[in-house]
Each structure stands twice: as C-alpha cells, then as structure tokens.
C-alpha cells in the first residue's frame, strides 16, 4: 500500500517534471498543495499539471508579497491536509504563515514533517541583528521538531547545520533540472550556431550569455560595466541578455552606445536551449542568489560558467580552471578579467566535457532518488515493503 505524502509548495515552477515523476512512484502517493498560482512578476507560461495538485486560496494582498512572513496566508491548508491524511508532510520554505500552519498541523496530528528551503548563511549577512535573532530562535524550534531537513547543496547543508540539525537528519535532494533535455537541445542548436549568429547579426567570435530577471540583486549593471571595460580591447566579445524586469529601461540606458550588448527580452523556458547552444560563456553576476538554477542549465549545455561567490550553486558546481570560475560580487574589473580569460582561443574548446560532468548527478533522476531516500528514512516500513 502506497504511503501518502503531502508537499507544500509556494507556486508551480515552469516546465518542471520532478513532481510528475514522483507521482508515478509505486511506493508513494503524493499531492502537491500550492500557496499561489503564479510567482510575482511571472512571465513564463505554465502548461497543464500532470500530477495530483491543489491550489489553496491565498488571503495575502498583492502588496504583501514583498514581506516573506505574510506573502502566503492560506488558512485552508489545515482542512486540505486533514482531508488528504498524509503520513508525511514536506514543507517547502519556512518563513510564511502557511508554512507554520502546515508544521502545526503535522505536530497536532503526530505526523512527521521534512523542511526544505534554498536558504544559506550568505543570505543573512546583511540582515539586522534583531531579525536574525528572531529567525534563529524560530528556525531552531522548527529544526528540533522536524524529521529531517532536505539539503540542495553545500551552503544549504551548512545552513541547516548552523540551526542545530543533526548531520544524520540532513538529507541531500539535489535541486536539479531536466539536464538530458537541455543537453540534447543545446547540441541541436549548437550545430546551427554559425547560421543563427549570422542571421541574428551577432558577428562576434565569442558570445557571453546572461539569463534571468532584470532586477537589482542580479547586478546586470555590473555585467554591462564589465562589457564596457572590455569593449576597446576585446571587440570580438558580445553579451546576450535574455530576460526582462523592472530595471530593463535603466540597464538599456546604461548600455546605450555599446555595440557589444544585445537585449533579447523575455524568453520562455522551452526557447532557452537555443541561446545556451549558440553561446560560449555563461555569467551570473548576482550579489545574492540562494541557489541559481540557470547554472545547472548552462553547465548541462556545456557552457563555462562565471559566477559570483554569493551564488549558492557555484559552491557545488563551478570548478575554477575546469568549467568556469568564481569572482567577487559587485566587482566589474574582476568580472571583465574573468570574461577576457574565458574568451581566449586556447580555451575555446575547453570546459564542455567538465561542465556536463559537473551536473551529471543534478538531473531529475537524481532528484527522484534523493527524495525517495529521504521519504524512506521517515517512513521506513514503505522501504521495507519494496
């Protein structure tokens, strides 16, 4: 008999087969409860959901979404969990009213719960001491009562450890993507890269790619400044910016007059492999980034990656001198130097194999295996009955 597992999640992720694969498990019956239908400033299109899911009514007002605690207020989570009667609850996040309600439901019904979040200690570096003090007491209470904490990487593991989690209760579940899809699609477009570059007017020998929202903490302005510094000495390098956001106009103004910067606007997830396929180097210049899923995508496509040390995924996946490098945040000079070094003729063919190998264990299969292992630890009788 299958064990029921409830997963509380903020909103659906685009083009993500993880839960669909979990729903096909012969050992677990899952149901995903979403706190909201869309993310803030969402532009991507969501296809049909092919797994058991329910959307809880969110009582939070739109302008509350900037405040984590009250961004999700779904009182109906209590009734939804009572009706589903899970044997385990996986809570994605911990800082909202709804997450706390789900934890309290689990505690009242003597049901084990797992905590999952992207956070790392770098996120807290600039927070106020009072905020960190309250957060620390709250998180220590959560961790103490949780059956386990799901870790997505090295920095996230350290985060749970800092809040008192026993190493044996920190369970690794990689936050991967469909790496096989990105690899195959990128190979398809790479075979046509000369044709695409010529048709698009990208006559430069090397293309640097950025994919993401155009918002302050992504620090695309630092990347544009780095390209400005490179402009005179390296006319053979251009930057493709794929994405949109509230800083688009300001960034376009900053790049005015630069002939090596192209704004391509928002592209939906199925269209991204084309740009990964024609590029040579991927850059993520964020001053804060809990994880950075685009790093996994770029590496799966065989690109070298330049990331700041504030990007969580870089600690696990970017190896200096092999598949990219890590640079200080908010440092245009260091970023320009890294791009210059990456775009050298003697390095042009290097790194593709190393990039793909780095994410060999970060695909959907690895996620499913990791989550199965975590569930087996909390529901051992289901593992024994295999």
How would you describe this protein?
This protein has 386 residues and is an alpha/beta fold. It folds into two domains: 3-176 and 363-384, Rossmann fold (3-Layer(aba) Sandwich); 179-358, Glycogen Phosphorylase B (Rossmann fold, 3-Layer(aba) Sandwich), CATH 3.40.50.2000. Helix content is 40%, strand content 16%. The chain contains 17 helices and 13 strands. It has helices at residues 18-23, 68-71, 77-84, 97-108, 129-145, 154-162, 179-190, 193-200, 220-231, 248-254, 272-278, 293-300, 312-317, 332-342, 352-358, 364-378, 380-384; strands at residues 3-9, 28-34, 53-55, 88-92, 113-116, 148-151, 170-172, 206-211, 237-242, 261-265, 281-284, 304-308, 324-327. It is elongated, with a radius of gyration of 22 Å. Residues 382-386 have low confidence and may be disordered.
Which class best fits the helix and strand makeup?
Answer: alpha/beta
Give the ordered list of helices and strands: EHEEHHEHEHEHEHHEHEHEHEHEHEHHHH
Strand content: 15-25%
Gyration radius, rounded: 22 Å
Overall outline: elongated
What is the strand arrangement across the widest sheet?
Answer: 3-2-1-4-5-6-7
Q: Kindly state the mean pLDDT as a whole number?
A: 90
Span between N and C termini? 10 Å
> Stretches where pLDDT falls below 50 for ≥5 residues?
382-386
CATH architecture of the largest domain: 3-Layer(aba) Sandwich
CATH superfamily of the largest domain: Glycogen Phosphorylase B
